[in-house]
Amino acid sequence: MIKKEKKDKEEKVDDEEEVEDEEEEEVDDDEEEKQLNSILDKKLDRLVKVMKETPSHTKAIGKEATTTKSIMEQDPFIRRIKPFVQLSDEMKSFVEGVKELAKTGTIRNKALQESDDTAGGFLVPEEFQNEVIRFATENAVVRPRARVFPMKTNTLTLPKLDQSNYKFAGIDIHWEGDEGEEKEESQPKFGRITLKLGKMIGLCPVSDDLLNDSVVNLANFLVSIFGEAIAYEEDKQFLVGNGMKKPLGVVNCGTPRARTGAGCIVYEDLKHMIEDLPAWANAGARWTLTRAALTEILDIKSGIYTGAAVDQTEGFPLFLPGFSIAAGIPKTILGYPYDLTDKLPAVGNKGDIILGDYSAYYIGDKGGLSVASSIHDRFRYDETTFRFVKRVDGQCALKNAFVVLDDA
Known about the structure:
Blueprint: H1 2-53, E1 58-61, E2 64-67, E3 71-72, H2 76-79, E4 84-86, H3 89-104, E5 122-123, H4 126-138, E6 147-151, E7 155-161, E8 190-196, E9 198-207, H5 208-211, H6 215-240, H7 250-253, E10 255-257, H8 267-276, E11 286-289, H9 291-298, E12 304-305, E13 310-311, E14 332-333, E15 336-340, E16 353-356, E17 361-374, E18 383-396, E19 402-405
Parallel strand pairs: 6-17, 10-19, 11-15
Antiparallel strand pairs: 1-2, 3-4, 5-17, 7-8, 9-18, 11-16, 12-13, 14-15, 16-19, 17-18
Protein backbone atom coordinates (compact mmCIF):
# COMPACT_ATOMS: atom_id res chain seq x y z
CA MET A 1 0.00 0.00 0.00
CA ILE A 2 2.80 2.38 0.91
CA LYS A 3 4.66 1.46 -2.26
CA LYS A 4 1.57 2.21 -4.33
CA GLU A 5 1.12 5.65 -2.77
CA LYS A 6 4.80 6.37 -3.36
CA LYS A 7 4.46 5.32 -6.98
CA ASP A 8 1.41 7.54 -7.45
CA LYS A 9 3.25 10.53 -6.02
CA GLU A 10 6.18 9.95 -8.35
CA GLU A 11 3.84 9.71 -11.37
CA LYS A 12 2.09 12.94 -10.30
CA VAL A 13 5.43 14.73 -10.02
CA ASP A 14 6.42 13.46 -13.47
CA ASP A 15 3.11 14.70 -14.91
CA GLU A 16 3.59 18.15 -13.37
CA GLU A 17 7.12 18.32 -14.77
CA GLU A 18 5.84 17.37 -18.22
CA VAL A 19 3.18 20.13 -18.02
CA GLU A 20 5.86 22.66 -17.03
CA ASP A 21 8.06 21.50 -19.91
CA GLU A 22 5.14 21.89 -22.34
CA GLU A 23 4.41 25.39 -21.00
CA GLU A 24 8.07 26.34 -21.40
CA GLU A 25 8.00 25.01 -24.97
CA GLU A 26 4.85 27.08 -25.69
CA VAL A 27 6.56 30.21 -24.29
CA ASP A 28 9.62 29.52 -26.43
CA ASP A 29 7.40 29.09 -29.50
CA ASP A 30 5.65 32.42 -28.79
CA GLU A 31 8.97 34.24 -28.41
CA GLU A 32 10.29 32.69 -31.58
CA GLU A 33 7.13 33.68 -33.48
CA LYS A 34 7.40 37.25 -32.20
CA GLN A 35 11.04 37.45 -33.29
CA LEU A 36 10.17 36.11 -36.76
CA ASN A 37 7.33 38.63 -37.11
CA SER A 38 9.64 41.44 -36.03
CA ILE A 39 12.23 40.43 -38.62
CA LEU A 40 9.58 40.22 -41.34
CA ASP A 41 8.18 43.66 -40.40
CA LYS A 42 11.64 45.21 -40.59
CA LYS A 43 12.24 43.64 -44.00
CA LEU A 44 8.88 44.88 -45.25
CA ASP A 45 9.58 48.38 -43.94
CA ARG A 46 12.94 48.42 -45.73
CA LEU A 47 11.29 47.13 -48.92
CA VAL A 48 8.57 49.79 -48.82
CA LYS A 49 11.17 52.49 -48.17
CA VAL A 50 13.24 51.34 -51.14
CA MET A 51 10.12 51.29 -53.34
CA LYS A 52 9.23 54.85 -52.31
CA GLU A 53 12.74 56.16 -52.87
CA THR A 54 13.27 54.37 -56.19
CA PRO A 55 12.02 56.25 -59.29
CA SER A 56 9.31 54.49 -61.25
CA HIS A 57 10.91 55.35 -64.60
CA THR A 58 14.44 54.08 -65.15
CA LYS A 59 16.32 52.75 -68.12
CA ALA A 60 19.24 50.38 -67.93
CA ILE A 61 22.44 51.25 -69.76
CA GLY A 62 24.86 48.39 -69.29
CA LYS A 63 25.19 47.96 -65.54
CA GLU A 64 24.06 51.49 -64.73
CA ALA A 65 20.49 52.77 -64.32
CA THR A 66 19.66 56.33 -65.31
CA THR A 67 16.86 58.08 -63.42
CA THR A 68 14.68 59.85 -65.98
CA LYS A 69 12.00 61.29 -63.73
CA SER A 70 12.16 63.07 -60.39
CA ILE A 71 10.05 61.90 -57.47
CA MET A 72 7.56 64.58 -56.47
CA GLU A 73 5.98 65.23 -53.08
CA GLN A 74 2.36 64.04 -53.16
CA ASP A 75 1.03 66.02 -50.22
CA PRO A 76 -0.24 69.33 -51.71
CA PHE A 77 0.63 71.37 -48.60
CA ILE A 78 4.19 70.04 -48.27
CA ARG A 79 4.68 70.29 -52.03
CA ARG A 80 4.32 74.07 -51.87
CA ILE A 81 7.47 74.15 -49.69
CA LYS A 82 9.49 71.27 -51.14
CA PRO A 83 8.10 69.80 -54.38
CA PHE A 84 11.06 67.52 -55.12
CA VAL A 85 11.70 64.47 -52.95
CA GLN A 86 14.34 62.99 -55.26
CA LEU A 87 15.84 64.44 -58.44
CA SER A 88 16.29 62.84 -61.83
CA ASP A 89 19.77 62.72 -63.33
CA GLU A 90 18.91 65.67 -65.59
CA MET A 91 17.73 67.73 -62.61
CA LYS A 92 20.83 66.79 -60.58
CA SER A 93 23.01 67.85 -63.49
CA PHE A 94 21.10 71.14 -63.73
CA VAL A 95 21.47 71.95 -60.02
CA GLU A 96 25.15 71.02 -60.03
CA GLY A 97 25.52 73.27 -63.08
CA VAL A 98 23.84 76.09 -61.13
CA LYS A 99 26.36 75.62 -58.30
CA GLU A 100 29.28 75.53 -60.70
CA LEU A 101 28.04 78.57 -62.61
CA ALA A 102 27.59 80.49 -59.35
CA LYS A 103 31.12 79.72 -58.18
CA THR A 104 33.09 80.01 -61.42
CA GLY A 105 30.93 82.00 -63.84
CA THR A 106 31.01 79.15 -66.40
CA ILE A 107 29.90 75.54 -66.64
CA ARG A 108 31.83 72.66 -68.13
CA ASN A 109 28.68 70.80 -69.21
CA LYS A 110 28.12 72.37 -72.62
CA ALA A 111 24.82 70.51 -73.04
CA LEU A 112 23.26 72.89 -70.53
CA GLN A 113 24.39 76.04 -72.28
CA GLU A 114 22.44 78.03 -74.86
CA SER A 115 24.37 78.33 -78.10
CA ASP A 116 23.60 82.05 -78.43
CA ASP A 117 24.19 83.10 -74.82
CA THR A 118 27.75 84.27 -74.16
CA ALA A 119 26.92 85.23 -70.57
CA GLY A 120 26.82 81.61 -69.46
CA GLY A 121 23.07 81.24 -69.24
CA PHE A 122 21.39 77.87 -69.70
CA LEU A 123 17.91 76.46 -70.08
CA VAL A 124 16.38 74.64 -67.15
CA PRO A 125 14.90 71.14 -67.39
CA GLU A 126 11.22 70.95 -68.32
CA GLU A 127 10.17 69.42 -64.99
CA PHE A 128 11.78 72.32 -63.13
CA GLN A 129 10.02 74.84 -65.36
CA ASN A 130 6.70 73.01 -64.88
CA GLU A 131 7.06 73.23 -61.10
CA VAL A 132 7.87 76.96 -61.31
CA ILE A 133 4.80 77.61 -63.46
CA ARG A 134 2.65 75.44 -61.18
CA PHE A 135 3.85 77.43 -58.20
CA ALA A 136 3.18 80.67 -60.06
CA THR A 137 -0.28 79.49 -61.10
CA GLU A 138 -1.31 78.63 -57.56
CA ASN A 139 -0.35 82.12 -56.35
CA ALA A 140 -1.81 84.17 -59.21
CA VAL A 141 -5.19 85.73 -59.97
CA VAL A 142 -5.19 85.84 -63.78
CA ARG A 143 -3.12 82.92 -65.15
CA PRO A 144 -5.11 80.03 -63.59
CA ARG A 145 -8.33 81.42 -65.12
CA ALA A 146 -7.06 82.81 -68.43
CA ARG A 147 -6.54 80.99 -71.73
CA VAL A 148 -2.85 80.23 -72.26
CA PHE A 149 -1.39 79.71 -75.75
CA PRO A 150 2.10 78.23 -76.30
CA MET A 151 3.99 80.35 -78.86
CA LYS A 152 6.72 79.13 -81.22
CA THR A 153 7.38 82.60 -82.63
CA ASN A 154 7.48 86.06 -81.07
CA THR A 155 4.07 87.01 -82.53
CA LEU A 156 0.79 85.09 -82.49
CA THR A 157 -2.39 86.35 -84.18
CA LEU A 158 -5.66 84.80 -83.06
CA PRO A 159 -9.21 85.30 -84.37
CA LYS A 160 -11.87 86.40 -81.92
CA LEU A 161 -15.62 86.87 -82.11
CA ASP A 162 -16.83 90.46 -82.00
CA GLN A 163 -19.25 90.71 -79.08
CA SER A 164 -19.24 94.50 -78.91
CA ASN A 165 -22.93 94.89 -79.77
CA TYR A 166 -24.09 92.35 -77.15
CA LYS A 167 -25.15 89.98 -79.93
CA PHE A 168 -23.42 86.71 -80.67
CA ALA A 169 -20.61 87.97 -82.89
CA GLY A 170 -22.97 90.33 -84.67
CA ILE A 171 -25.30 87.60 -85.93
CA ASP A 172 -29.01 88.47 -86.22
CA ILE A 173 -31.42 85.55 -86.09
CA HIS A 174 -34.62 85.79 -88.20
CA TRP A 175 -37.68 83.59 -88.34
CA GLU A 176 -38.81 82.40 -91.76
CA GLY A 177 -41.88 84.33 -92.91
CA ASP A 178 -44.26 83.74 -95.80
CA GLU A 179 -43.21 81.65 -98.77
CA GLY A 180 -41.18 83.55 -101.28
CA GLU A 181 -40.20 86.26 -98.81
CA GLU A 182 -36.58 87.35 -99.16
CA LYS A 183 -34.41 86.23 -96.25
CA GLU A 184 -31.89 88.62 -94.73
CA GLU A 185 -28.27 87.52 -94.74
CA SER A 186 -26.31 87.47 -91.51
CA GLN A 187 -22.60 86.74 -91.17
CA PRO A 188 -20.49 86.49 -88.03
CA LYS A 189 -18.11 89.35 -87.27
CA PHE A 190 -14.57 88.44 -86.37
CA GLY A 191 -11.79 90.49 -84.89
CA ARG A 192 -8.11 89.78 -84.28
CA ILE A 193 -5.94 89.70 -81.23
CA THR A 194 -2.16 89.81 -81.62
CA LEU A 195 0.15 88.65 -78.86
CA LYS A 196 3.73 90.00 -79.05
CA LEU A 197 6.14 88.55 -76.56
CA GLY A 198 7.87 90.74 -74.05
CA LYS A 199 10.90 89.63 -72.03
CA MET A 200 10.49 89.42 -68.25
CA ILE A 201 13.82 89.58 -66.43
CA GLY A 202 14.23 88.94 -62.71
CA LEU A 203 17.23 89.07 -60.37
CA CYS A 204 17.53 87.01 -57.19
CA PRO A 205 20.48 86.90 -54.74
CA VAL A 206 21.24 83.51 -53.13
CA SER A 207 23.61 82.98 -50.21
CA ASP A 208 26.73 80.88 -50.76
CA ASP A 209 25.73 78.77 -47.74
CA LEU A 210 22.60 77.69 -49.58
CA LEU A 211 24.60 76.86 -52.69
CA ASN A 212 26.63 74.42 -50.59
CA ASP A 213 23.46 72.67 -49.43
CA SER A 214 22.07 69.45 -50.96
CA VAL A 215 20.92 69.41 -54.59
CA VAL A 216 17.32 68.62 -53.53
CA ASN A 217 17.13 71.54 -51.08
CA LEU A 218 18.61 73.93 -53.64
CA ALA A 219 16.18 72.76 -56.35
CA ASN A 220 13.22 73.28 -54.01
CA PHE A 221 14.46 76.73 -53.02
CA LEU A 222 14.98 77.83 -56.62
CA VAL A 223 11.47 76.65 -57.55
CA SER A 224 9.94 78.71 -54.76
CA ILE A 225 11.84 81.95 -55.40
CA PHE A 226 11.42 81.84 -59.18
CA GLY A 227 7.76 80.85 -58.79
CA GLU A 228 7.03 83.66 -56.33
CA ALA A 229 8.78 86.26 -58.49
CA ILE A 230 7.08 85.18 -61.72
CA ALA A 231 3.68 84.84 -60.05
CA TYR A 232 3.81 88.37 -58.69
CA GLU A 233 5.29 90.23 -61.65
CA GLU A 234 3.35 88.65 -64.51
CA ASP A 235 0.09 88.77 -62.53
CA LYS A 236 0.67 92.47 -61.89
CA GLN A 237 1.21 93.14 -65.60
CA PHE A 238 -1.83 91.03 -66.58
CA LEU A 239 -3.84 93.38 -64.34
CA VAL A 240 -2.26 96.83 -64.84
CA GLY A 241 0.32 96.49 -67.66
CA ASN A 242 0.42 99.25 -70.29
CA GLY A 243 1.20 96.98 -73.26
CA MET A 244 4.58 98.61 -74.00
CA LYS A 245 6.84 95.56 -74.44
CA LYS A 246 4.77 93.93 -71.69
CA PRO A 247 1.22 92.56 -71.35
CA LEU A 248 -1.78 94.87 -71.69
CA GLY A 249 -3.52 94.59 -68.35
CA VAL A 250 -7.26 94.29 -67.73
CA VAL A 251 -7.35 97.79 -66.20
CA ASN A 252 -6.23 99.21 -69.56
CA CYS A 253 -8.13 96.93 -71.95
CA GLY A 254 -11.42 96.37 -70.10
CA THR A 255 -14.60 98.46 -70.34
CA PRO A 256 -14.39 101.52 -68.05
CA ARG A 257 -17.33 102.54 -65.84
CA ALA A 258 -17.39 106.12 -64.51
CA ARG A 259 -17.24 106.38 -60.72
CA THR A 260 -20.21 107.94 -58.91
CA GLY A 261 -18.29 109.58 -56.07
CA ALA A 262 -14.75 110.90 -56.22
CA GLY A 263 -12.08 109.01 -54.27
CA CYS A 264 -14.33 106.25 -52.96
CA ILE A 265 -16.48 103.22 -53.81
CA VAL A 266 -20.21 103.45 -53.26
CA TYR A 267 -23.11 101.07 -53.73
CA GLU A 268 -24.13 102.74 -57.00
CA ASP A 269 -20.70 101.86 -58.46
CA LEU A 270 -21.12 98.16 -57.71
CA LYS A 271 -24.67 98.17 -59.06
CA HIS A 272 -23.67 99.86 -62.34
CA MET A 273 -20.70 97.52 -62.83
CA ILE A 274 -23.03 94.54 -62.63
CA GLU A 275 -25.38 96.34 -65.00
CA ASP A 276 -22.57 96.81 -67.56
CA LEU A 277 -21.47 93.17 -67.47
CA PRO A 278 -22.97 91.23 -70.44
CA ALA A 279 -25.07 88.22 -69.59
CA TRP A 280 -22.78 85.80 -71.45
CA ALA A 281 -19.90 86.74 -69.09
CA ASN A 282 -21.99 86.43 -65.94
CA ALA A 283 -21.34 82.76 -65.12
CA GLY A 284 -17.54 83.10 -64.87
CA ALA A 285 -17.40 86.64 -63.52
CA ARG A 286 -15.64 87.54 -60.28
CA TRP A 287 -14.46 90.69 -58.51
CA THR A 288 -10.77 91.58 -58.17
CA LEU A 289 -9.91 94.22 -55.58
CA THR A 290 -7.49 95.27 -52.85
CA ARG A 291 -8.06 94.86 -49.13
CA ALA A 292 -8.50 98.63 -48.86
CA ALA A 293 -11.26 98.47 -51.48
CA LEU A 294 -12.93 95.59 -49.59
CA THR A 295 -12.85 97.65 -46.40
CA GLU A 296 -14.43 100.54 -48.30
CA ILE A 297 -17.23 98.25 -49.49
CA LEU A 298 -17.84 96.83 -46.01
CA ASP A 299 -18.26 100.44 -44.79
CA ILE A 300 -21.05 101.21 -47.28
CA LYS A 301 -24.19 102.17 -45.37
CA SER A 302 -27.84 102.19 -46.35
CA GLY A 303 -28.05 105.97 -46.05
CA ILE A 304 -30.69 108.31 -44.61
CA TYR A 305 -32.86 110.65 -46.66
CA THR A 306 -32.31 114.17 -45.38
CA GLY A 307 -35.03 115.83 -47.45
CA ALA A 308 -32.65 116.99 -50.16
CA ALA A 309 -30.43 113.97 -50.75
CA VAL A 310 -29.41 110.62 -49.28
CA ASP A 311 -26.63 110.79 -46.71
CA GLN A 312 -24.77 107.49 -47.25
CA THR A 313 -22.52 108.04 -44.25
CA GLU A 314 -25.49 107.17 -42.02
CA GLY A 315 -27.66 104.09 -41.63
CA PHE A 316 -26.79 100.42 -41.24
CA PRO A 317 -24.02 98.53 -43.15
CA LEU A 318 -25.26 96.95 -46.37
CA PHE A 319 -22.65 94.18 -46.35
CA LEU A 320 -23.02 92.50 -42.98
CA PRO A 321 -20.49 89.77 -42.15
CA GLY A 322 -23.23 87.96 -40.27
CA PHE A 323 -25.06 88.24 -37.02
CA SER A 324 -21.77 88.22 -35.13
CA ILE A 325 -18.10 88.96 -35.72
CA ALA A 326 -17.41 85.22 -35.51
CA ALA A 327 -19.37 84.72 -38.73
CA GLY A 328 -16.48 86.28 -40.67
CA ILE A 329 -16.34 88.37 -43.84
CA PRO A 330 -18.68 87.25 -46.65
CA LYS A 331 -17.03 85.34 -49.52
CA THR A 332 -19.05 87.10 -52.21
CA ILE A 333 -20.06 90.65 -53.07
CA LEU A 334 -23.59 90.86 -54.44
CA GLY A 335 -23.38 87.18 -55.34
CA TYR A 336 -20.04 87.25 -57.18
CA PRO A 337 -16.87 85.72 -55.61
CA TYR A 338 -13.86 87.95 -55.18
CA ASP A 339 -10.05 87.75 -55.16
CA LEU A 340 -7.88 90.04 -53.05
CA THR A 341 -4.62 91.41 -54.45
CA ASP A 342 -2.21 94.25 -53.73
CA LYS A 343 -1.40 94.72 -57.43
CA LEU A 344 -4.27 97.11 -58.23
CA PRO A 345 -4.23 100.93 -57.79
CA ALA A 346 -5.23 102.64 -54.55
CA VAL A 347 -8.89 103.27 -53.77
CA GLY A 348 -10.29 106.14 -55.82
CA ASN A 349 -8.09 105.47 -58.88
CA LYS A 350 -9.04 103.71 -62.10
CA GLY A 351 -8.96 99.95 -61.66
CA ASP A 352 -9.23 99.76 -57.87
CA ILE A 353 -11.97 97.18 -58.47
CA ILE A 354 -12.65 94.92 -61.49
CA LEU A 355 -15.59 92.68 -62.35
CA GLY A 356 -14.99 90.22 -65.18
CA ASP A 357 -14.55 86.74 -66.64
CA TYR A 358 -10.83 85.92 -66.96
CA SER A 359 -11.42 83.19 -69.54
CA ALA A 360 -11.68 86.15 -71.96
CA TYR A 361 -8.05 87.10 -71.23
CA TYR A 362 -5.41 85.50 -73.49
CA ILE A 363 -1.82 84.73 -72.45
CA GLY A 364 0.99 83.79 -74.81
CA ASP A 365 4.03 81.84 -73.56
CA LYS A 366 7.17 81.05 -75.52
CA GLY A 367 9.85 78.58 -74.59
CA GLY A 368 11.17 77.76 -71.18
CA LEU A 369 12.73 79.65 -68.34
CA SER A 370 16.40 80.53 -68.84
CA VAL A 371 18.81 81.18 -65.97
CA ALA A 372 22.17 82.95 -65.66
CA SER A 373 24.21 84.04 -62.65
CA SER A 374 26.83 86.54 -61.49
CA ILE A 375 29.40 85.99 -58.73
CA HIS A 376 30.43 89.67 -58.70
CA ASP A 377 27.23 91.62 -58.03
CA ARG A 378 26.90 90.53 -54.37
CA PHE A 379 30.45 89.26 -53.77
CA ARG A 380 31.04 91.14 -50.50
CA TYR A 381 27.83 89.70 -49.05
CA ASP A 382 28.79 86.08 -49.84
CA GLU A 383 25.87 85.91 -52.24
CA THR A 384 25.40 84.97 -55.89
CA THR A 385 22.85 86.78 -58.04
CA PHE A 386 20.70 84.69 -60.39
CA ARG A 387 18.95 86.18 -63.38
CA PHE A 388 15.95 84.45 -64.92
CA VAL A 389 14.31 85.36 -68.22
CA LYS A 390 10.79 84.45 -69.34
CA ARG A 391 8.97 85.61 -72.46
CA VAL A 392 5.24 86.23 -72.15
CA ASP A 393 2.38 88.48 -73.33
CA GLY A 394 -1.29 88.92 -72.54
CA GLN A 395 -4.35 91.05 -73.27
CA CYS A 396 -8.17 91.03 -73.19
CA ALA A 397 -9.63 89.01 -76.06
CA LEU A 398 -13.12 90.38 -75.34
CA LYS A 399 -13.03 93.89 -73.94
CA ASN A 400 -16.57 93.96 -72.56
CA ALA A 401 -16.00 90.77 -70.54
CA PHE A 402 -14.36 93.09 -67.97
CA VAL A 403 -15.88 96.13 -66.25
CA VAL A 404 -13.29 98.43 -64.68
CA LEU A 405 -14.26 101.15 -62.22
CA ASP A 406 -12.86 104.38 -63.68
CA ASP A 407 -12.15 107.80 -62.22
CA ALA A 408 -15.07 110.06 -61.36
